[in-house]
Design a protein that fits this description.
2 domains; 3-stranded mixed β-sheet; about 10% strand; binds zinc ion
Amino acid sequence: MIKLNAYRFSAKELVKMGWLKDLFQDNGFVIDRFPEVYYDTFKNASKVYPNLEQHINEDTPDYLGVYIFEYGDEKCEEQCRSTKEGVIVLFSDRIQDFCLRKQSEFSESLIDIENALREVVLYHELGHWLSHWPYYSGSNWKCGYSAKDRITHEVYAQLVAYWCVEGNRLNELLLREHLTPKIPSSPYNKYEILVGKSKVDMLSKLVLLRKYWCSFQLTDELAYELLKMDLIEKCVAYAFENSVRKIQLNVQALKSLGNEIAFQVLAMGWSCENGELTCIEYDFALCKLLALRLLDETELREVLNFEKKYCDENSRKGIRLIHKFGL
Ligand SMILES: [Zn+2]
Ligand SMILES: [Zn+2]
């Protein structure tokens, strides 16, 4: 069995990793160690990890390195598979090839470019691990973390890389000009619109996304919408935890939060759960009416009673009924 070469961090990388650890810890995450990191050729890595994607785009951090996680056997109530902590491999051959190909575009020496590039790729892959694994309030993203959610995963990996390289000319140039594809559909440039947002905001949203991913069956696209919004954390938490259909609804508390976005989140959560367009429209209408204070507690209760009386809980057909009544 082939063994990959362990990566030896540079002094500069260790300092930056300490800074990352402090950043995440200050925001409630627990980091008592870092993941395994290897530095070897793509070919060797493929022997150890046969499922590595062969034909990935050349101008992304994940062509030059990878965060490899595997699925576990457990399944949660929502039937999503659990995941295991991943390892990082930086591909020595691809990093060197990339530098040779691009050398003429830089004024620095080949060795300086190579060191800087490897550093940026390391931070990107650490970004994957940081968003996936370190615990927050006793839980992490073990469940619901899926390779198909490319936008959310790459946004966090690229953001972490950006935070690490900000202010370092060569590293920043490599990330923004060479590892951020301009093609609109690429998940690797989706972070750009978020670089102005505070780290505290992005990390508190990471906590929310991990927490509600399974139970609300959040999608990659919806998660990205949430990341772009100016949300008040407690509004979102409230919106997720207090459906308008829950009997113990505290309408006053809901109203006093006064953030329409929270209602939209609520509506989107429901629309994901029900998966029907009519429900989306209905929920938006209901939530908007509440947000605009056109529906008071008594009236809302009447709507809910009407639903209870006429709705088929299984098919949720009554929702369409109410929709027809012009709500
Ligand atoms: Zn789950
Ligand atoms: Zn990535």
